[in-house]
Write a structure and sequence with these properties.
It is built from three helices and eleven strands; from the N terminus they run αβββββββββαββα. By secondary structure, the chain is an alpha+beta fold. It has one domain: Invasion associated locus B (IalB) protein (Immunoglobulin-like), CATH 2.60.40.1880.
């Protein structure tokens, strides 16, 4: 009797662990899910759902967005991460922008276009830079105002690693 009870207990434990691990392994990030300072956003495009993580910096007075940074993977390619940085209108376009993680050298990128909602630039994240985002504490995004004065915006990387990991599932 004791051996049967022991076997049933082991079977139930195995079933519970199998269920937990399969649920975790197949978990998909949900729209609005937060990973500390990063939030998941999912959108439908051409019948497929695409998710990315983002952080939005806003002015304390008025709540206007000053910087929006989104990182995700190209549809159908979980190996190639991209970053899109949205900045306010009225910035100097020829100087571009750059992003610096902790004490590393900055990576310069072009501001590709401006629309009514702001100016955007982005680039593909090479493995070493993606790793720097994962391991870093702060990224400094620098762009220039109309008088070519540098505007530096700190971006917290707390939660980035967990957020990007969730997108890889």
């Amino acid at each position: 009797m004791q051996k049967i009870t022991h076997n049933i207990l082991i079977s139930q434990l195995f079933l519970l662990l199998t269920t937990l691990f399969s649920t975790t392994a197949n978990a998909v990030p949900t729209d609005g899910e937060a990973f500390d300072n990063w939030t998941v956003r999912c959108e439908q495009s051409e019948g497929r759902e695409s998710c990315f993580i983002f952080q939005n910096l806003v002015l304390q007075n008025g709540g206007d967005s000053i910087l929006h940074v989104a990182v995700g993977y190209l549809p159908g390619n979980k190996k190639e991460a991209v970053i899109l940085v949205s900045m306010p209108l009225g910035i100097s376009l020829p100087l571009g922008a750059n992003i610096k993680i902790d004490e590393q050298e900055p990576t310069k990128f072009e501001i590709e276009r401006c629309e009514t909602s702001g100016c955007r630039g982005g680039f593909r994240l090479k493995d070493d830079m993606l790793q720097s985002f994962r391991m870093g504490k702060t990224a400094m995004v620098t762009f220039y105002d109309g008088h070519r004065k540098a505007i530096e915006m700190p971006l917290s990387l707390i939660g980035f690693s967990a957020g990007i990991d969730a997108l890889e599932l």
